[in-house]
Amino acid sequence: MTALQTETARAICPQCGVRDHAAALDHAAVERAAESLAALGDPTRLGIVTLLASHDRLCVCDIAAAFPVGQPTVSHHLRVLREAGLVDVIRHGQWAYYGLRRDALKGVVSGLVALL
Questions:
Q1: Is 93 left (phi over 0), alpha (psi -120 to 50) or beta?
Q2: Measured between alpha carbons, how far is 39 from 74 in angstroms, rounded to an integer?
Q3: Of 87, 112, 106, 114, residue with least CA distance to 98
Q4: Fewest beta carbons less than 10 Å away: which of 14, 64, 73, 104?
Q5: What is the DSSP string of 13-56?
Q6: CATH number for the domain harbouring residue 55
Q7: C-alpha pair distances (Å), 69 with each of 36, 44, 63, 86, 96
């Protein structure tokens, strides 16, 4: 690398004011956002989130009844949403009741809005 290239590489970016874009990026936050957005990127999962948004909690059997797929498929989608931190579950005996983690969903949305 020439001296000019080295100096250019260390120059402050005129658009954002940082020297090192890689260091300025919160890679962990990007990974978390990508996981949440990937979870929301499936039509069934987005439908589940939409359904849960109008309820406090729903039994998995009621969620499954709203979609033209089997209960094991709905359970898989709920697991993906739970692992992404977008829903939580409360178990009562053999029944599982899912609820939307509104704070997590608001965090995803506000992160996207902050990009604008």
A1: left
A2: 13
A3: 87
A4: 14
A5: PTTT--S-HHHHS-HHHHHHHHHHHHHHTSHHHHHHHHHHHT-S
A6: 1.10.10.10
A7: 22, 9, 11, 21, 18
- Coil vs helix vs strand at 73: helix
Contact 56, 88 (CB under 8 A): no
112, two tokens? 């996207």
User: Could you give the CA distance from residue 80 to residue 45 in angstroms, rounded to a whole number?
Assistant: 8
Residues 6+ apart with CB under 8 A from 41: none
Other CB atoms within 10 Å distance of the CB of residue 36: 21
Look at the chain and report how many structural domains it folds into: 1
The answer as to whether 10 is a domain residue is no
Q: Mean pLDDT, to the nearest integer, of 4-14?
A: 67
The residue range of the domain holding 82 is 26-114
